[in-house]
């Protein structure tokens, strides 16, 4: 059972004080009955909430895929810099969304935002070995030596990386698959070969590929099948 003002503000663009006013002006109903107090408790699995004569569709959890543009940090709020939450706030401002894992400010591509902590944990947990694939452009030619080093596990100053896959896709470009997420990992791995990362884009998490029709800065909700792919759960048809 949860307070009706909390549910409505989480599930809509109304603030808690908007909901108070709506309740006062008898605009909120539960199962057809006018609600008298904004602390009224309801069961979201059973009760039907109506606001201004429109039924509220209650979504338990939200899962978004965002094609992250450059210039946004992977945080929920920041006093100076724009965050990935700023991009989705006009539609989901009242939900406690957060990014699942981090991408650097200048990294683009696939980012998942959710308010489901268990789901985020299931992807980020080191035990899961969930794979993340990146398209990388560097400032010097990509070499077989780098590919071999990535396969063996690159030794960084503070720790050794797990084995990863570096597929050479062009003179200066590669596709890198990681199963962990150390701080600035790809930049530091290439740094070991005196290479500077010029462009970095995440293109896949688990079995889920960044949708090709999702432009930079665009986002949408994930389907149930896509969610399973993100988690790498077998039994769904992979493209
Ligand atoms: N590795 C990096 O160096 N940066 C990212 O944003 C992701 C992986």
Structure in words:
The protein is α+β, with helices and mostly antiparallel strands and 239 residues long. It contains seven helices and 15 strands. Strands 7, 8, 9, 10, 11, 12, 13, 14 and 15 form a nine-stranded mixed sheet that branches. Strands 3-2-5-6 form a four-stranded antiparallel sheet. α1 (4-11) crosses α2. The two termini are 41 Å apart. It binds uracil (URA). Uracil binds next to α6.
Summarize the SSE layout with pairings.
Blueprint lengths: L1 E2 H8 L4 H9 L3 E3 L2 E2 L6 E2 L6 E3 L2 E2 L7 E6 L15 H9 L5 E2 L8 E7 L2 H8 L7 E7 L5 H9 L12 E4 L4 E6 L6 H7 L5 E9 L2 E2 L9 E3 L2 H7 L9
Helix pairs in contact: 1-2
Uracil binds next to helix 6.
In a nutshell, what does this entry contain?
With 239 residues, this protein is α+β, with helices and mostly antiparallel strands. Helix content is 24%, strand content 25%. A hairpin with an 8-residue loop joins β8 and β9 (108-114).
Brief descriptors of the model:
9-stranded mixed β-sheet; 239 residues; alpha+beta; 7 helices; binds uracil; 15 strands; 4-stranded antiparallel β-sheet; single chain; 25% strand; disordered C terminus; elongated
